[in-house]
Amino acid sequence: MNVLSSRPVAAAFFEQPTLILARSLLGKLLVKETELGIAAGWIVETEAYIGPGDRAAHSFGNRRTPRTEIMFGPPGYVYTYVMHTHCLVNIVSGKPDHPEAVLIRAVEPCIGIELMYDRRGHDKKLKELTNGPGKLTKALGIVKEDYGRPFFERPLYIAEGKTVESAAAGPRIGIDNSGEAREYPWRFWVEGNPFVSK
């Protein structure tokens, strides 16, 4: 695949309702350009967070903090945060003042695989490089400082990818203390893809 032909999607792509966006992102290319080179992967797993009514969302109850501020703006921007020392990357969704987001949980390596190994360690199996939200950010070189960037401009962007034949939906992962929100089927993944997180 020629990465030079990969262009960011239009800002309007992110204006879809959050659950539809989370599904539409499957198969798209997540690209990060750095001084060390370009790394990219096809998105194979996402999770939607629909605050303020979603107990699992950082914006539950319209909670507005310096960390969540970006979620109150327009869709299509980068929301990064650190959890257990790992940087996680989300796409702001929903209309302004409706703070919603889509977490990118896993990608299938596509471009810059050697660079991913340099960042993650050469002792890893290929499918372990990016099969989790903290793994993929490290592999692609996505950092907390990417917070607030537009996903429709370089150097961190979403590009057209490949068609997904079959997608599945089910409960989100790692949100055990969120009451009934634990059961919402707001995680989406490419069926049968080996890079989907465990």
UniProtKB/TrEMBL annotation:
EC number: 3.2.2.-
InterPro entries in UniProt: Formyl_transferase-like_C_sf (IPR011034), MPG (IPR003180), MPG_sf (IPR036995)
The organism's place on the tree of life at top rank: Bacteria
Gene Ontology MF annotations: hydrolase activity, acting on glycosyl bonds
Protein name: Putative 3-methyladenine DNA glycosylase
Keywords: DNA damage, DNA repair, Glycosidase, Hydrolase
Family indicated by similarity: Belongs to the DNA glycosylase MPG family.
